[in-house]
Design brief:
Layout (H helix, E strand, L loop, with lengths): L1 H11 L2 H17 L3 H18 L2 H12 L14 E4 L12 H4 L2 H16 L5 E6 L9 H11 L7 E5 L4 H12 L4 E6 H13 L4 E6 L16 H22 L3
Parallel strand pairs: 1-2, 1-4, 2-3, 4-5
Helix pairs in contact: 2-3, 4-9, 4-10, 9-10
Length: about 250
């Protein structure tokens, strides 16, 4: 129930749905002849979309989350496990495995493999993830296929099946990892929330953030009403809502 409720809330409390809601309210006000009230609502919707689809603003907001944890350039010695959190996929055997797994998951797994190679392959890579609503293949299985295709030894891959979200991934790792230090790989924007879940379970993760999307080095001040910027704002909203949810649950 928790999982479904989170999905429903996150579906609507995002920049695009909220902006569309402002427009709908304005149209309703116009339809019932409340023109004076409709004007500020329409103005609000335009300003809303401008702010969250303006590249410099979206990048600054996203960078504030992504920069919470530094990059793990070199894997600490004697690490036995690298936990790569799940993402998404769509099973289609006519496509290469790199096209079936979403870009976020490909990047996460590649970061895990990079650190695995630094450890001279003397570590196990844990992959996790649930199946989708219509796709019956578990994401962990897809990640295993991708890892093997990228040269990881089959015996070095551990599957955590049936994990719907990060909280369940943390709980699934508790029995295996116990108090063993391990490398945790996920998107930079998601790392703070992921660390909260894993440390709440008494685990000892070493953060290895990847898939950094914020670009603040060379801002493009002429990038107005950008769909890419709106996507970055959506990620920010999603993570902030997730952190609020954690606070409410005492995590």
């Amino acid at each position: 129930m928790d999982f479904i409720l989170k999905k429903i809330i996150s579906m609507f409390l995002m920049p695009l749905p909220i902006g569309v809601l402002f427009i709908i309210v304005a149209l309703i006000l116009i339809h019932i002849n409340k023109i004076k009230r409709a004007k500020p609502m329409l103005t609000l919707s335009i300003v809303w979309f401008f702010i969250f689809s303006y590249a410099p603003v979206a990048n600054i907001l996203l960078h504030s989350i992504e920069s919470n944890n530094p990059t793990l350039h070199t894997a600490p010695k004697n690490i036995k496990y690298i936990y790569v959190l799940g993402g998404g996929h769509h099973t289609d055997e006519s496509l290469p495995i790199t096209s079936q797994v979403v870009e976020t998951s490909v990047v996460r797994l590649n970061e895990g493999i990079r650190l695995y190679e630094q450890l001279d392959r003397n570590a196990k890579i844990i992959v996790s993830g649930y199946h989708g609503l219509y796709d019956t293949t578990e994401h962990a299985v897809m990640q295993k296929k991708l890892a093997i295709s990228l040269g990881v030894t089959k015996e070095d891959i551990i599957l955590h099946l049936g994990t719907k979200d990060t909280q369940e991934e943390a709980k699934a790792g508790k029995k295996l990892l116990a108090d063993e230090p391990f490398i945790l790989v996920t998107s930079a924007s998601h790392m703070t929330r992921a660390l909260n879940f894993f440390t709440h379970e008494g685990l000892d993760p070493i953060p290895a953030p990847t898939n950094h999307l914020a670009s603040i080095q060379h801002p493009n001040y002429t990038d107005f009403f950008s769909s890419e910027a709106l996507t970055k704002s959506r990620i920010v909203f999603h993570e902030v809502l997730g952190l609020i949810w954690q606070k409410l649950k005492g995590i």
